[in-house]
């Protein structure tokens, strides 16, 4: 196996084990997962081999595909799929019986209309009892969970006005609008959260 320089996220390296500990039991009875915004590809390359019963479909904007493919080529798995191009504001639901969706660190870099589009996209496509798992920083009642998150939010907004840490209640309302019922809201390392919803109808 040849290992090359690949895009690398230290945050992905740090959070993969805590996230997987919560995802693994949740996904035991699922068969086909769509990852929205696979980023570097690190999560997919690490999670998929440990969930052999589950097809793991990566996706991202086309400019991120080369890096994802490098990770998938260096860490191949029979159930791991090459990325599809996906922009949530324009995408059609992929072919296949997808019954789970996972996304990490995307909501705070999308524009709000894209976050709305993502929830509509997921809630429209998932079958009854399908699950949607979202990882990242959130605010609660307008308050950041830490000083580091407050600073991160400011830096996001300085770089691009449409970015920023989202409010939990606004995010959860988008889920409710799409018949996604909150199952769990897990506190995670580095002041992040893992939200898990299930499609009710």
What is the CATH architecture descriptor? 3-Layer(aba) Sandwich
* CATH topology annotation: Rossmann fold
Average pLDDT figure: 95
Tell me the helix content. Answer: 25-40%
Give the N-to-C terminal Cα separation: 45 Å
Number of strands: 9
By oligomeric state, this entry counts as: single chain
Throw out a few tags for this protein.
alpha/beta; Rossmann fold; seven-stranded mixed β-sheet; globular; 24% strand; 201 residues
List the helices and strands and how they pair.
Elements: H1 10-26, E1 32-36, H2 42-47, E2 55-60, H3 65-74, E3 80-85, E4 100-104, H4 112-125, E5 131-136, E6 138-139, H5 147-159, E7 166-167, H6 168-177, E8 180-188, E9 192-199
Parallel strand pairs: 1-2, 1-4, 2-3, 4-5, 6-7
Antiparallel strand pairs: 5-9, 8-9
Helix pairs in contact: 4-6
Summarize the structure.
The chain is α/β, with parallel strands linked by helices and 201 residues long. The protein has helices at residues 10-26, 42-47, 65-74, 112-125, 147-159, 168-177, and strands at 32-36, 55-60, 80-85, 100-104, 131-136, 138-139, 166-167, 180-188, 192-199. Helix 4 (112-125) links the parallel strand 4 (100-104) and strand 5 (131-136).
